[in-house]
Specification:
Length: 71
């Protein structure tokens, strides 16, 4: 199995403790990160509180071996 290590600015790398003002900013960050390393993202699972607010939401890297998707 070959190992591939992307080269990109460290400031684009997700890190523990990273916080965002809202979900839109979070999604924007991860889309940018994924784009720079040659992936796209897709929404995965999420969980809401009883009041309907997002408790957590998962985004996962998605490597489509077909055409690259524009950002």
């Amino acid at each position: 199995m070959k190992e591939w290590i992307p080269i990109f600015d460290e400031e684009l790398k997700p890190r523990e403790g990273l916080e965002f003002v809202n979900l839109e900013e979070c999604e924007k960050f991860y889309k940018s990160y994924a784009h720079h390393i040659g992936f796209s993202i897709r929404r995965s699972t999420s969980k809401k509180t009883k009041e309907g607010a997002h408790k957590h939401k998962y985004y996962v890297l998605n490597k489509d071996l077909g055409k690259a998707q524009p950002m």
